[in-house]
Amino acid sequence: MDDKTRENGPWKRNLYVLWFCTFVAGIAFSEIMPFLSLYVSQMGSFTKQQLTFWSGAIYAVTFLVTAIVSPLWGSLADRTGRKVMLIRASLGIAVSMTIMGFCSNVWALFFARLFQGFFAGYIPNAQALVASQTPRKHAGAALGTLVTGSVSGTLFGPIVGGVLAQVFSIRNTFFITAGLLVIVCLMSAFMVTESFQPQPKTAGTKQKGLLKQVADPKLIIILLVSTMIVQTGNASISPIIALYIKELMHGVGPITVVAGIIAALPGISNILAAPRLGRYGDRHGSGRVLIGCYLFAVVVYFPQGFIGSVIGLGILRLFVGISDAGLFPTIQTLLTKNTPANVTSAIFSWNQSFQALGNMFGALLGGAIAGVFDYNVVFMSTALLLLINLIVLRVTQPQLLQRTDKKVA
């Protein structure tokens, strides 16, 4: 589709509709995280070790399945179009949320979360649809606008979820979330227009391996693994954050609301810090931002294990958002600058898979460590993990402290 055809097409309406849909989807995907472990605790009489194990496993299984099936859904999207994928993802997750609301034991919840993993991909497909239908001269602004929808939804999701759980109960929050996703599904089906043309396959052409097409395969692998490790650190906190807050509050007060607010704080600082760190990286080198944010993350994660108040924990979680604002975007920037244009999308799809694996490993690690030791050890082990990652980066990639702004052709 040429730019003139795109200019006369419904790309603006698609952008407005999908901004709202990704906003709602971001809320729906993130709002259950602060109280998922509390929901698990309502399903039986568990020891602390059992509770943290099940919380971690139930959180992790969705991301395990997502990491496996995402490349398959991506391949199918190339043949059928992104709109079908939007409908598939939103409706499938709505069904899984409904099932979660009816669960009465941990095994049922585990399989419901597993089922949810099969239907991931709404936000990436919305981004791909907008990119494919928007005139090239407007593509950057359109995608930048669309991203604010999902980021804002993910930011407000934990707060919305905490309030809904406090007012309507945790179980009913799943049904409300499912209803929101049904609305997203209907809007995607009836208000989004896609002119899809599948790309023809070139017969007789042997494609070179992905890593053989990049100048420095070792750097790419290390950056992908770094994405996984950073996300492992973030996700190790998710299964236990509400339980840790409950412990700090001595089991008294609006625990789900407080957990939701504290879960959202890193997102607030992330949005504020990311553009500034990005501009600094453009001027002084992305590698310097990466190394500096690793050091900052270690410094702010470690004391979270010793903090004695919810307010102190909230301040430190706010600082975590600043480190994330430098880590994830900078890793993506370095991947872009060190990847030929013709394989950038493939590299980014692998980056998303490694991030999903980080979610899985982090949840399992956090649950296991909290069960064997205590909640505070999870924060200290996360700091140690990031420190090891930093050392590996500095030893194997010393050039990261140099300017790396030149894009590989």
Bin the strand percentage: under 5%
DSSP strand tally? 0
Average residue pLDDT: 79
Main sheet makeup: none
Distance between the termini: 24 Å
Q: How much helix is in the residues?
A: over 70%
Shape: globular
The unreliable regions are 404-409
List its salient traits.
78% helix, 409 residues, mainly alpha, disordered C terminus
Could you describe the 3D structure shown?
Helices cover 78% and strands 0% of the residues. The protein has 16 helices and no strands. α2 (11-30) packs parallel to α8, α10 runs antiparallel to α14 and α12 (255-284) runs parallel beside α14.
Short synopsis of the structure:
This protein is an all-alpha fold and 409 residues long. 78% of the residues lie in helices and 0% in strands.
Secondary-structure blueprint of this entry?
Elements: H1 3-7, H2 11-30, H3 36-41, H4 48-80, H5 82-102, H6 106-117, H7 122-133, H8 136-168, H9 170-191, H10 217-237, H11 241-248, H12 255-284, H13 286-301, H14 310-337, H15 344-372, H16 375-396
Helix pairs in contact: 2-7, 2-8, 2-9, 4-5, 4-6, 4-15, 5-6, 5-7, 5-9, 7-8, 8-9, 8-12, 10-14, 10-15, 10-16, 11-12, 12-13, 12-14, 13-14, 13-16, 15-16
